Every structure is written in structure tokens, then in C-alpha cells.
Amino acid sequence: MSSHFGAKHLGYVLVDGSEGVFRGAALVADFRGIPADFRYTDPIKPSRIEKILYGGALDVYLREELILENIVNAVEVQPVMWICRDADLLESLARIAKARAVLLAPTSRSPLDAAGDLERQNDPGSYLVQADSVSAPLRMSLPLTRTKEEEARAASAILVEAAATMDLLEPFSRIVKALSALGEEQGDQ
Question: How many helices (H) and strands (E) does the chain have?
Fold first, then answer.
């Protein structure tokens, strides 16, 4: 499975800490949604002692340093942009990846006039982006260090280009299913 040289890629990252078990995965896909790289962590279940010693810092430590840093640094195909859907991850993703990073979330708003349209929201660095001509706009948030309008336009242009040939949020459901399947396989052993 070699990816087309010179193709642009998007990186998707998901970190889950539900039920006291932490795991994460990164999927790098080309603009058609075809996977080029996939990295994941084994489930991490902190011990009672670790919970006591780390206290309130445990969650951040596991999510950012143990999981996010490992999966982002393990990826061999570098995406033009990283995408997360968890607001808590955005700043650390931008810092660790040393690349453009955005938070994308669905909205139920009616479409803006045309693909590529941007509408600034009240939150700093938050925009509605019309990625294609028919769907509801997506909410895109930029890291606080990069909230300038031109940064939003550059990120938006990448999303519009990719949205022409793929569903921008769909890879997240693939990551969720892959992590679930991996969990079942590990349960079988």
C-alpha cells in the first residue's frame, strides 16, 4: 500500500478516555479518504496509585504526552493539516505536530452562499466554513496562537479542496470503529 508520491494528506487524531481507559489513534488519508498511515496506542488503564500520584494532571498527561505525542510522532506520512474534534486537544496537537492543526465539528446551520465561504464566529479563532456547495457548514477552530484571518483562509482552502473528493468528518468514524475492533481483538487473546 504505497501512497501516491506528492499527494496531499489530512491527518485525523482521536484520543478517548472514556470508562477510565485511555487510547488514541491517528489516521492519515489522502484527499480521497484513502488511508496512507494509521497509528494507535494500546489501551492505558491508570493504576490506583498513578491516579493518586498524578491527581488532576493525570488526564492531561495521558492524553497529551503519552498518547498524542506518540501517535503524531509515529506517523511517517506527514499531512498538510491535522484535524481533531476534541477542543482539549487542539493546542497540544498544534504544538506537537509542528504543523497546521484545526478542530472541525459539524453544525446544523444552513449552508453559506458558496464553497469556500468563511464566517467568523464569536469565539476567537472560530469560523463557519462552507467546505462544499451543499452540506451544512463545518465549525473550524484554530489554535489560539494562529487565529489570524489569513490562517483561517489557508486552512479553509485545504478543507475545500479535500471536500471535493471526500467527506471531511467521516474518517473519525473509521478511527472509532478501528479502535473498537482492536479492542475486541485484544479481548480475544
Answer: 6, 8
Write down all domains in the chain, each with its CATH number in brackets: 9-181 (3.30.2170.10)
Q: What is the pLDDT of residue 3?
A: 44
Res. 2: pLDDT tops 70: no
Work out the pLDDT band at 124, boundaries 50, 70, 90. Answer: confident
- Residue pair 81/101 in contact by the 8 Å Cβ criterion: yes
Q: How far is CA 110 from the centre of its chain?
A: 24
* Predicted TM-score (pTM) of this structure: 0.92
**Rg of the chain, C-alpha, whole Å:** 17
Chain centre to alpha carbon of residue 112: 24
**Calpha distance 64→120 (Å, rounded):** 28
d(C-alpha 146, C-alpha 160), whole Å: 19
Which pLDDT tens digit goes with each residue over 20-79? 899 999 999 999 999 999 999 999 999 999 999 999 999 999 999 899 999 999 999 999
In whole angstroms, what is the distance from residue 132 CA to residue 108 CA?
Answer: 14
Which runs of E-coded beta strand occur in 19-113? 23-30, 35-40, 81-84, 101-106
Among the listed residues 78, 82, 104, the one whose alpha carbon sits nearest the alpha carbon of residue 92: 82
- Quote the cell numbers at residue 141: 477552530
Could you give the CA distance from residue 106 to residue 85 in angstroms, rounded to a whole number? 9
Scanning the structure block, which residue is given the C-alpha cell 492519515?
28
